[in-house]
Amino acid sequence: MFKNLSAELKQYLVITANYWAFTLTDGALRMLVVLYFHQLGYSALQVAFLFLFYEFFGVVTNLLGGWLGARLGLNRTMNIGLIMQVIALLMLAIPGEWLIIPWVMFAQALSGIAKDLNKMSAKSAIKLFVSEERQGTLYKWVAILTGSKNTLKGVGFFLGGLLLTLIGFQSAMLLMASLLCVVCCLSLLLLKKDLGRVKRKVKFKELFSKSASVNILSAARLFLFASRDVWFVVALPVYLSETFGWTAWTVGGLLALWIIVYGGIQSVTPYFTGSSSGRVPDGKSAVLWAMGLAVTPLLVVLSLQFESTLFIAGLFLFGALFAINSSMHSYLIVSYAQREGVSLDIGFYYMANALGRLIGTLLSGWIFISLGLSACLLVSTLFIVIAGGISLFLPRELLRENSY
Questions:
Q1: Number of C-alpha atoms within 13 angstroms, CB side, residue 220?
Q2: Cys-Cys link to 266, which of 147, 155, 212, 253 (CB 3.0-4.6 A)?
């Protein structure tokens, strides 16, 4: 069956499978680190600092990774990411008494570099498989890749809590490293050589996008993802553990389900935004959906005054609307990016994404300790409003395609 598929679809499937496997371990690793070190007595702010280099080097990697992808080929940057993730997992597999903060932060730095090399490569490659005229198809392919990735990240969250409970932190690291070694070998065999490589010499100054649309969308993306991570990354898991007394298994299960639902909605976002009538998103769509999202953190704050069921429902409402916003942004950047050297524009965009995550992660620990979860959610609303305001300057040219 695989042999009968087109060359472009085969490569898309290889890249998607590669991305899925990486994302599964990345989600599990994040949950393992948060819960394991919280169990050891680390405060929310200390746990946040363990991810400082993970997020910081994500910023650097996306900026440089787009340039590397254009020079070396996206297949190479994707495989380099897999290898670096294996090294990071093995670094954390050492005995617990050796896991001092600087060592963990360095391992997380490698993991952050690996994750963003892998993501940038996967998102950039899609642009090369779909012609410029097929914008609706491009939208669907991006939505499927993005959504399925996040669904598996949610499974990874669940897996992280499960592995910590069943086999412990170090054994989980060894198991995931073994899985990625197999994936890396398959990727080296199946992925097309020189995918996305630019024949001309790519200058270093091309790291920074010259496209106004890419720059505006990148700024909006920064605030959008800061609005999620300011309460989700550190504050929420610690809040559930401290306030409700939930175990690592329970916390990991809830966050896993949240991400799974989030990813599922991302995959079908085109159906929420007008694909049945042949429409794809533009700047106006980004503004309207951002304004709808901005209300949800306020609803979650109100729900804190009532029973936990309403609080959990509010979290899932935020996740659903955030998924639609994120999926539209992912389509827009692939659409705006230039076909030649596509990784340059997409790398710059995901640099802004990583910077937003870094800001959100740091603020998550600090604001939670100082003012609590409600304050984190109020800052989230502020960031979403800013993202929507920036999106007002995006192009409002509605594209149509009859075939989906």
A1: 28
A2: 147
Task: With CA atoms as reference, report the closest residue to 377 among 317, 294, 298, 308.
Answer: 298
- Going by C-alpha positions, the residue among 82, 149, 86, 145 that lies closest to residue 117 is 82
Q: Are 303 and 313 in contact (CB under 8 A)?
A: yes
294 neighbors 321 (Cβ within 8 angstroms): no
Give Cα 297 to chain centroid, integer Å.
Answer: 20
Token pair recorded at residue 58: 């994500």
Cβ pair 223, 386 in contact under 8 A: yes
Among the listed residues 19, 17, 21, 27, the one whose alpha carbon sits nearest the alpha carbon of residue 253: 27
CA separation for the pair 323, 228 (Å, rounded): 11
Q: What average pLDDT does this structure show over 121-141? A: 66
User: CA 212, 214, 219, 223 torsion: positive or negative?
Assistant: positive
In percent, the amount of the chain with pLDDT more than 90 equals: 15
Of 380, 398, 394, 395, the C-alpha closest to 293 is 380
CA pair distance 104, 50, nearest whole angstrom = 7
Would you place residue 137 in the very low, low, confident or very high pLDDT band (cuts 50, 70, 90)?
Answer: low
* Helix/strand/coil for 341: coil
- Residue 279 main-chain phi, psi, to 5 deg: -100, 145
Q: Return all residues near 284 (Cβ < 8 A) that are at least 6 apart.
A: 396
The rounded distance, in Å, linking the Cα atoms of 112 and 26 is 9
Asked whether residue 74 carries a pLDDT value surpassing 80, the answer given is no
In the CATH scheme, what is the code of domain 2-196+207-391?
Answer: 1.20.1250.20
DSSP character for 168?
-
Q: How far apart are CA 35 and CA 260, in angstroms?
A: 19
Q: How far apart are CA 380 and CA 313, in angstroms?
A: 17
| CA atoms of 257 and 249, how far apart (whole Å) | 12
Give dist(CA 323, CA 93) in Å, integer. 33
